[in-house]
User: Fold this.
Amino acid sequence: MDNEPIKPGDSGSQADFIQNELNFDVDPKDTLTKATLEDHTEGEWMDVLGVGQLKKKVVKAGQPGTRPNRSDICTIKLTGKLEDGKVVEDHEKLTVQLGDVEVIQGLDLVIALMDVGEVAEVEVESRFAYGDLGREPDIPGGAKLFYTLELLSVEMEPEIETLGVAQRKEIGYNKRERGNWWYTRDEASLAVQCYRRALDYLDETKGGIVYPQGEPDESISDAALQALLEDRMKVYNNLAAAQMKTEAYDAASKSIDNVLRCQPKNVKALFRKAKILQHRGERAAAFAVLLQASKLDPDSKAIQQELADLKEKRAKDAKHEKNLYKKMLGTHKANGTSNKNDDSINQKSAKSKIAWSLIGGAVAAMAGVIVYRRLS
Assistant:
């Protein structure tokens, strides 16, 4: 996903639903879990999710007790058709890692319910296949798919630290590409899942790199490690974009920091950091980061447009603050005028009280004199 995604949007609830199904806890009392764990006789349709969207029928039973676990490497044979019988997928030997959504969600779920050697028919509604987008040019949007699926073999995931640089790079690249595919289909949660798995293979700090015997010496060169680092930075950058799409901005910020620690002049990382800062309301900091990105890539229309938008927003903020200050100062002046008027009224009231006191005193004195004379 070195190019910007072609279709932004929310990941929706479908990816979350699928993720829950992939991670369900075994509870024999639960209807869905009970249905997925029970053995089904040949020819009996099984409603995998209990909603009529994904069905499986055993055509040929496999070896009991050989169902794969999450992260196992599964080799399958499959043929996929549309309702009119047109073949749109055909693989004699396809290797996928279970739970890493390297096939459509419906197949990823069904493979987990198969034994080695089992042949099954699978009906997948579009929701768990290629959705409303379809897959150009052969699968239209909203298409229901019909598969004949055979589980050929199952192997455990190898210890990552035992893999060489070339193997890690290849697996990491494939998982990144799958993440990009999900991202362009607006399935950001599934893209995040793929990117995280890619990082497991591209991060040499996880247990270190132990090079298998017989691997050529040049594979452990500084150039090979540098290439692994660059791939890892691409994945972190893409991971941040997917996390932003799901509004996981704190996680996205950490992913971007991982890039900028190693590549402080990475323009895409700087651009996404600015977007995160804007979301947090830190527009001044976002503007500074965008200026840095603009200096590194002055021809970027996206950066220039973002700078222009941010300038406009900052100008509006400044105007709003200025108006607030004016209102505050206007209130103070009004209060000052009011206080002066109050003081004037108080002073007049005090003078009036003094005048009346003097008059009252004079009247009282005269009355006293009169009374004195009469008494005399």
About this structure: Residues 301-375 form the longest helix (75 residues). The longest strand covers residues 87-97. The beta strands are 45-47, 54-60, 73-81, 87-97, 119-124, 145-155.
